[in-house]
Amino acid sequence: MTAAQSVSATIDPHRAVRLWLLLVAALVFAMVVVGGATRLTDSGLSITEWRPVTGTLPPLTHAQWLAEFAKYQASSQYDLVNRGMSLADFQFIFWWEWAHRLLGRVIGAAMLLPWLFFLMRGRLDRRLAAVTFGIGLMIGFQGLVGWLMVASGLNPGMVAVAPLKLMFHLTLACLIFATLVWVALGLKPARDRGPVSTRLRCGGLAVLVLIVVQIMLGALVAGNDAGMRFNDWPLMDGALVPPLGQLFDKPSTLEAFVDSLALTQFNHRLGAYVLFALALWHMLAARGSGFAKSATVLFGLITAQAIIGITTLVLVVPLWAGLLHQAFAVLVLGHAVGHAHGLVRARRLPENPSAPAAAMAPMGRAA
Questions:
Q1: Do 248 and 286 share a domain, yes or no?
Q2: Distance (Å, rounded) from C-alpha 248 to C-alpha 173?
Q3: Domain assignment of residue 301, given as a range
Q4: Of 229, 43, 78, 55, which is closest to residue 156 (Cα–Cα)?
Q5: Same domain for 163 and 226?
Q6: Residue 288 and residue 358 in one domain
Q7: In which band, very low, low, confident or very high, does the pLDDT at 93 lie, cut at 50, 70 and 90?
Q8: Neighbours of 182 (CB within 10 A)
Q9: pLDDT greater than 70 at residue 3
Q10: Among 156, 189, 222, which residue terminates a domain?
Q11: pLDDT at 352 over 70
Q12: Is 275 part of a structural domain of the chain?
């Protein structure tokens, strides 16, 4: 090791581990985008079996393609929605689902193999090894959740996956992404941007939590194809608030919150309004602090996402707009994670001006 490399390692000893975690986060981001394309092209049920190892290889011969097509033809989605589709049409949706599953395998390998390497080289202390191992378990569990979601759409009479399971699948992917970014940032040398108040810190965390909730509500909209209805804004079918009979058009209130086209979209709209207002308040509250620029960028991203969402709705969810809306949501989440992490890591501003100076001491490294 050269003298320059030695100094660099001393200043930032976790650089390699941090880059590894950020690379896996980038792969998870790509996975969410490909998953969105799989959903928007109705490709998710094209592969009717879960074969974690042998399923890596796609059909290679015409006979194998016909056999795979025959399995899909036995599904309700083919019988009720795609009856008469050609082999070429089937191959189009098959490749989307296959790519989605292949990327999941790549993410698993990208998490496991470097983890073993860093562990053997002593680059992971006990705590970091446990945390990253836990993330690996989350990624493995996500594969199982994905299959359970697909299986829900393969039940007799079903032509799409269950919205609740789609919500869980997307939310878990976003939580994995957020955790990877959070831990990676915790390995970065601290940057002092000045002290922050408890109110500002809690505001940043509240925005982060509400972004996750809004993603969950959006997943219910996607799972019900609710974006294909009520395509006016700011009204819904000409009303600011749809009639209660339209919102709660299911046998039970719980079912309405999960399966009603009107209520799932209305809740997603309300969530967007609350998130916009909270982000605006947080930006104004951050003025004069070292986090003013970051809070302003966060508000700008949330505003841009709202505009993308409205455009997607009014245009009745074209593929490009739906993908952009889903991908941009993860980008907003990533910035919110970084912003909240910085606030949690920052020195605390004493609530009482007479508080001892020790309260102003820099915090230690936080994962």
A1: yes
A2: 29
A3: 190-367
A4: 78
A5: no
A6: yes
A7: very high
A8: 20
A9: no
A10: 189
A11: no
A12: yes
Q: Please give the Cα distance from 153 to 312 (Å, whole number).
A: 25
Report the Cα–Cα distance between both ends of the chain, in Å, rounded.
Answer: 28
Whole-angstrom CA distances from 92 to 86, 175, 270 are: 10, 30, 36
pLDDT at 321 over 70: yes
Q: Please name the amino acid found at residue 318.
A: P
Last residue of a domain, one of 130, 161, 189: 189
CB contact at 8 A, 25 and 180:
yes
170, 330 in Cβ contact below 8 A?
A: no
Confidence label for 55 from pLDDT (cuts 50, 70 and 90): confident
Q: How far apart are CA 183 and CA 149, in angstroms?
A: 28
49 with 165, same domain: the answer is yes
- Whether residue 234 is contained in a domain is answered as yes
Query: CA–CA separation, 38 vs 94, rounded Å?
Result: 9
Chain centre distance of CA 25: 10
Check residue 124 and give its pLDDT: 92
Whether residue 144 is found in the same domain as residue 247: no
- Cα angle 171, 57, 98 (rounded to 5 degrees) comes to 35
Q: How many domains does the chain have?
A: 2
Same domain membership, residue 180 and residue 36: yes
In whole angstroms, what is the distance from residue 183 CA to residue 204 CA? 17
Helical H segments across the chain, by residue range: 3-11, 15-40, 62-73, 76-80, 87-120, 126-153, 163-186, 198-223, 244-247, 253-259, 261-285, 292-314, 319-345
How many CB atoms are closer than 10 A to CB 367? Answer: 14
pLDDT in tens, 140-164: 999 999 999 999 999 998 889 999 9
Q: Is residue 309 part of a domain?
A: yes
Q: Is position 2 within any domain?
A: no
330/301 Cα distance (integer angstroms): 11
Reported pTM = 0.90
Q: Give the residue among 216, 112, 202 at the shortest CA–CA distance from 164.
A: 216
Q: Are residues 249 and 326 in the same domain?
A: yes
Please check the confidence at residue 217 and state whether its pLDDT lies above 60.
Answer: yes
183 with 271, same domain: the answer is no
